[in-house]
Amino acid sequence: MTDVWRSGGLGPGGVSMKARVEQQLGRASRSPLGIWFRDIDRVLLLIAFLLIAIGLVAVAAGSPASAQRYSDAAHQVPPMYYFWRQVGWVGVSVPVLLVVSMLPVHVARRMALLGALACLVCLAAVPLIGVDANGARRWIGYGFAQFQPSEFLKPFFIVSTAWILSLRAQDDKLPVMAITAAITGLIVFLLMLQPDFGQTIVFGAVWLILLMVAGISPRVMAALGAAGIGGIISAYLFYDTARARIDSFLFGDAAAGAADSYQTDMAHAVLTAGGIFGRGPGAGTVKFRLPEAHTDYIYAVVGEEFGLIACAVIALLFMALVVRVLVKLLEEDDAFRLLAAAGLVSQFGVQAMISMAVNTGLAPSKGMTLPFISYGGSSMIALSIGMGLLLAFTRRNPYLARSSYGTGWSG
């Protein structure tokens, strides 16, 4: 097949394989696939695929440790159990990412609005019919069909909030901040019922970032910042889990939250056990004492087996993702696109920053996966939807009018 390609040999119908690809993806192509390939930000797509590939390697490294932890005399979990499940989730997620990235902007916006409504209903149902796991009720469904509504709500919430805030460009008297504050407050309330303090921080942080991008006055932002500090203090005073984790982070084993201190201390030990270059794939040993090695603390597993250089590469990839989008948005004049893309990339950046801070001991322990790296079906599919939306909102075509992509206010 390689020889046929290089020689321009004829394929079916008397057309060379190279010519067929150029017809579909070349600059002159007017097919939907060709237009998509020309307009998509291929650097962002490459970063996403690199993170997914690194994630598969990382889950393969963490799977034996988690399999051993969850095995007992009655049920033995195969060492690569979580890796092969993650391969399946990636096989589902990548097509989702690509299909969503091909959507016209107005279709993607409508999908996000409907998705936000559906996920909000599911989130409200979690305290009633949700599934308990590790002392929290965050999942809904049964067996293989279980999913985490808050994961799917994040990208839909961001796009919906961006759309509401963008209406301010048409009429600055619309109470867009009050509307988005009410929606965010409802989500925060439902998340704290689970409880899920980590996701609460992500939703609140992304909402504040969207307000800043939308141009809310500094006085209002200062008031919201003070309210956020008040919320953290209230969580410490009235939310036992938050108080235990903050105490264990600040005071170590002497506090009541010694179990949480063990997790962060062990994560730091695993992270630094491999030194600069790591112990090598599969050679890690300290990871077997680490809880949730395949999910919340997978960044530490990467450090032990592949070294601090690999950890730095992951951090730089997330930084490159954020910087790439922000640079592209400097020339964006559509309010909705600007807000939606800024909010979506902020979610990736905030979530990655929190996860890496927990793994390095810079933040208290909390259930926060590293985007595209950690194991998880709901997380992987939801992140792929978010990345697909980000790619859809950052598409650029220098040859066709922007109106053909549905970027107007109608619809």
Number of helices: 15
State the share of residues found in helices, binned by percent: 55-70%
Low-confidence stretches: 253-257, 400-411
- Count of discrete domains: 1
Overall pLDDT score: 83
Structural class of the helix and strand makeup? mainly alpha
* Spatial order of the strands forming the largest sheet: 1-2
Give the H and E element order. HHHHHHEEHHHHHHHHH
Q: How many strands?
A: 2
Give the amount of beta strand, in percent. Answer: under 5%
Radius of gyration based on Cα positions: 23 Å
Distance between the termini: 46 Å
What's the story with the biggest beta sheet? 2 strands, antiparallel
Shape: globular
Pfam family, one: FTSW_RODA_SPOVE
Main location: membrane
Transmembrane segments: 43-63, 83-105, 112-131, 151-167, 174-191, 197-214, 221-239, 306-327, 339-360, 372-393
Keywords: Cell cycle, Cell division, Cell shape, Glycosyltransferase, Membrane, Peptidoglycan synthesis, Transferase, Transmembrane, Transmembrane helix
Keywords:
411 residues; mainly alpha; two-stranded antiparallel ribbon; 2 strands; 66% helix; globular; disordered C terminus; cell shape; glycosyltransferase
